[in-house]
Amino acid sequence: MNEVRKLINITDLSTGEIDHLMDLADDIMADPTKYQDACAHKILATLFFEPSTRTRLSFTSAMMSLGGQVLGFADAKSSSATKGETVSDTVIMAGCYADIIAMRHPKEGAPIAAARKTTVPLINAGDGGHFHPTQTLTDLLTIHRKLGSFDNFTIGLCGDLMFGRTVHSLIEALLRYENVKFILISPPELRLPEYMKEKMNRSGAEWHEYTKLEDAIPELDVLYMTRVQKERFFNEEDYVRLKDSYILDREKLEDAKKNMIIMHPLPRVNEIAVEVDDDPRACYFYQAKCGRYVRMALILYFLGIN
Amino acid sequence: MNEVRKLINITDLSTGEIDHLMDLADDIMADPTKYQDACAHKILATLFFEPSTRTRLSFTSAMMSLGGQVLGFADAKSSSATKGETVSDTVIMAGCYADIIAMRHPKEGAPIAAARKTTVPLINAGDGGHFHPTQTLTDLLTIHRKLGSFDNFTIGLCGDLMFGRTVHSLIEALLRYENVKFILISPPELRLPEYMKEKMNRSGAEWHEYTKLEDAIPELDVLYMTRVQKERFFNEEDYVRLKDSYILDREKLEDAKKNMIIMHPLPRVNEIAVEVDDDPRACYFYQAKCGRYVRMALILYFLGIN
Amino acid sequence: MNEVRKLINITDLSTGEIDHLMDLADDIMADPTKYQDACAHKILATLFFEPSTRTRLSFTSAMMSLGGQVLGFADAKSSSATKGETVSDTVIMAGCYADIIAMRHPKEGAPIAAARKTTVPLINAGDGGHFHPTQTLTDLLTIHRKLGSFDNFTIGLCGDLMFGRTVHSLIEALLRYENVKFILISPPELRLPEYMKEKMNRSGAEWHEYTKLEDAIPELDVLYMTRVQKERFFNEEDYVRLKDSYILDREKLEDAKKNMIIMHPLPRVNEIAVEVDDDPRACYFYQAKCGRYVRMALILYFLGIN
User: Fold this and answer.
1) How far apart are CA C167 and CA C160, in angstroms?
2) Inter-chain contact A92–C285, Cβ cutoff 8 Å?
3) Predicted ipTM?
4) Is the dihedral of CA B13, B16, B22, B24 positive or negative?
5) C93 vs B268: CB contact, 8 Å cut-off?
6) B97-114: per-residue pLDDT in tens?
7) Locate the Aspartate/ornithine carbamoyltransferase carbamoyl-P binding domain: which residues (chains A, B, C) (predicted)?
8) Is the same domain home to A124 and A154?
9) Which of B13, B108, B213, C200 is most open to solvent, judged by the fewest CB atoms within 10 Å of its CB?
10) Do B115 and B193 lie in a common domain?
């Protein structure tokens, strides 16, 4: 790895690299102690120009679990950005103090600009409504561990499919694999954008659209829930009529397969009832755990340690 | 320890456990190097939904002094709470990234709700005006180390005894021991609540109330100072008349025992004059130091390491 | 070192001590692994009552690169200062939880007040418009490594020389050495204060003033750029007329010596054009790197490890 590695979008990783990261994460989960000093004397900088506890903590936990250390900032107010510094300069500066960078920024494209001059590996930890590749890696690891492979399964994506970046990235990643069927469940206003549907068509993937979760749930192997924000609806009437359809509860689960897995990128507000937490199909907290291990794998890989 | 340990209120610890923590803290203070790697590869999450530098830093220092690492957030703004996540979900999430949690929350009862589903040990680091058990452990260690035991002494509690949670918890803890006499020194408006007095009565503890510190100080073995906030007084007149009585200075100390110890949970504003800092009886900074060691003991105990 | 060490102003260090720190930093840069565990089991507290990402991260990186750990706060809002605690009390408290303190405060003189009662070594990480000694050490290390010594060279200081604390400290430090010539380049409103000129005169140092960078650049061995804030100008007319003169670009560099070094304390806004970054004379990011190593040297020295 002579070139400095950057992960801006999940498409920056080849299928071979994703497979390598899955294998590495599996190996870490099987025996974390084997890796507990792998990043000793290495430093991760977490540059969060926008707060995101979950993502920041999972990166931090990942680096610490490798024996490394973590520095950074949790919001833009305590960054030099307030003094007019460019993101690019901040990233070069961080490269003087750390061996690898995870960066989150509210502005789409900021990580691309920042990555141009970085002297150390840089990971996009989310940029506005754009990319969030480590969430996708997290989702992939969860699916891979629960289903055993990425081929031949049906995934339901439920909620706001128009603006939900995690959904778009996950679809893009899964299109690389064989025979994944996509069930798109959303209010009419929040359907998956046309360009995403075209991508699926070009890949020859099968997909169907539903308005109600109830109608789609029986055929799913994976149900990926996301939030539907009230303000996304065009009118109050639609919202009142449809909102309950995007809340997963015990009743709706009755028609689901017994080994379906329920995922959610978290945080949830009310789109999954708390009663579902005790269902053996609930995987969203397991998914959070996967986020720690896949980030360990990514850090190792980008630092050229594995 | 098969069950996940939680410390919400000091009463969650048996007398035997408190004694064990005192002994363990003593042993750590005698030879900290013996414990400096005891928590290697362990992570503490400090979830502070409300800022509290002193408590957060003492937990952090405790974990680091055990060779462990620390992640978390210092105020709610950089937590997922702003996205509508429940405290319970945040705690489950933190349990995916850390081995033990210390949590502070402005809402009374929040840690109880949070603790219900935690998968890792959880320590309440203060919840509004309610409980703050590690402050009580800190106070207990200070008294134990300075007096040699918890039996047969007279403690004066001075200041706002109505709202001061540290005072209530300390009284509850000391009621378990033999022959502790309580001297309650406060403005009439800020006297200890009736239910606390009933608790003392039921335990058969001797207690007396004073309005002026000057009158009470000669008989004390321990003087525990707390802040009296101006806004707690019912009228300006009372405040002006009484406020100096709750400020400890060299003059008032003249009538005190030569080996009395002066405690304060800190931060102080003006309730102890700076001139008192050089008095050998001043123990409040020593108390801060004890806070680090007793938290080390608690972390070790809850992680099942000691 | 029986006395607790404090670094408030660069003048707190003897010339011998500065030379020692330069040598130590050189040695660290030559072989960082030799020092990677030197501060194992030691804790640095970073008390930042005012945000400053760059300085905080460089201290943090320095301590971590020595195998030590770091705790603290990044702005006053999450400190006990909001509860009315004095800076002196905060520093004593931090001394209960850490082995060494780096403190930044918006109020001039705050570190002096704080240092009076500290029980552990204390480093001023910047106090308002006053002192910032570790920036000066950073600047010195950069010059020393690039020029090979502190004697016999010409340094141009460009920008706001009236309020720029880094410039004043650097001049004071360089006056200790032989035959350093100072070229002062600033708008008339922002010239170096008289008392600084008197200091140079008393030291017998040669100095000249210029209004335009173009006129001064050919004779410089070092060009130290600082920001000129628009609001510092007395009138808009002057600002428009002069502002471009304080922006370094490729064109102005044409007349500069081939081995001149360009420095800047960072963050920059627009006073150095991005095109200059690729010029081999650009040293400002190297300077940021030096900041990490000289702070490593300082921490080691103050902890009595080297």
Assistant:
1) 9
2) yes
3) 0.94
4) negative
5) no
6) 999 999 999 998 899 999
7) 5-144
8) no
9) B108
10) no
